[in-house]
Automatic annotation (TrEMBL):
The keyword Iron-sulfur does not apply. Residues 135-364 form the Sigma-54 factor interaction domain. This is Transcriptional regulatory protein GlrR. One of its GO terms (molecular function) is DNA binding. InterPro entries: AAA+_ATPase, AAA_lid_NorR, Homeodomain-like_sf, P-loop_NTPase, Sigma_54_int, Sigma_54_int_dom_ATP-bd_1, Sigma_54_int_dom_ATP-bd_2, Sigma_54_int_dom_CS. Keywords: ATP-binding, DNA-binding, Nucleotide-binding, Transcription, Transcription regulation.
Amino acid sequence: MANIIVLEKGRDILNEILEISKGVPHSVCSAKRSSDLVEDGQEAKTDLLVYYKNDGVPVDQLFNRIREFRSPPKVLVVVDKPDFSELEFSLREGALDYIPRNEATGFLTSLLGRLDQLVVKDEPIGAELGERFNIVGECTLMRNCLNTVAKARHSDVSVLIQGETGTGKELIARAIHGISTRSSKSLIVVDCASLPDTLVESILFGYSKGAFTGADMQNEGLVMRAHGGTLFLDEVSELPLELQKKFLRVLQERRFRPVGAKREVESDFRLVAATNKDLSQMVKDGLFRSDLLYRIQSLKVNLPPLRSRLEDLPLLIKHLLKKSCKKNRISEKSFSDCFLETMKCHDWPGNVRELENVLDSVVVLAHFSPVVYPEHIPHYIRVRVAKHSLHNNDMQSSGDLKRITGGLVTRSSLPTYKKYRNEVLESMEQHYFKEVYELSGGNLAEAMKITNLSRARLYEFYKRYNLTKSEAH
């Protein structure tokens, strides 16, 4: 039996579901107001929420409320007039579907007939993955990711992980491998962005003795090392086009010829790929093969940026503070409400990786304090938070500003001019090179023209600020 809640103005969809489910032991109830949903969801597990958008509640507000459910339900959105942006948003948030009212009867008839099967076996281990693989997150977006990962455990389909830099793509890849039937074999990680153009083929596919100058002995290559296990191509968007063509055949046949070899060899591997780029757009721009994209995205995992899951920030801070204290051999620390409030005001362009680096700094600065406060946060963040707050006029008083920024302007916490200047310049520098990277599309040659810097110097900045290097072409 499944528990169903219908949110609508009136009883249109409710009566239809009651009629369709006659003889089926589902529990069906209605909610007139979206504010009732959280209470219903917390009293008992709701398996399916059918939202008929005739009560005026925007779809984004609905999903915000659903995030407060201890165990989020499946969601079906029914509308009189479909809107593409709402459809895209709903599906991205994990909705079962977004359908027009005139298709609801047929869809509900099919859905209710298989609802028990859909809700019973869908998420048996998704919640366990976080603890096992140190993936912290309880928001709906992260639950959806982990549930997708859980579904991949019994198959060998290729998985594409998409997400901004620092969102934890490699953690997800390790989880996919760790719960698969191949977990007893190796996970081979390949950073495609760091592969030299002249050596990429020999590194991936290996080479025979004497294949080229310096090839004094045979090398099996990374694809062969992944035999029986998982091959993880990180930043797969950086693979050269010519190699994409060769790798497509490897995916299709699981056979390839090492450089200089006379015979082909076989490697039975499962592919997991990751990217922070829009591969569909790269296909349109002629930078990525469409046939390869179809092959690598049999299953997609979309990792949300940290700014889209700030409800997870307290859990992440607690976890990473503990990790940093242990790493630095410092007693464990807690954090104040003001500290959390300040951290929530930052937009975290570097995502969880940036958060981890910031908390490493916080732990060192608050060495003798058992509790961390806003004054322990690096000044570039506090300055940015203060600037944003003042710009948006959302501070009620200077006292509010000092509370949020840890009293940046007080004598005790004001840094030296040199320290303040360095931190502000570093922040501006990071922003500058991020703009350069995006404007040049990751092309080093183009970025060198913009910045008038040498390749080595430019790459040094890219590496410092965790920007993916793309070889000039």
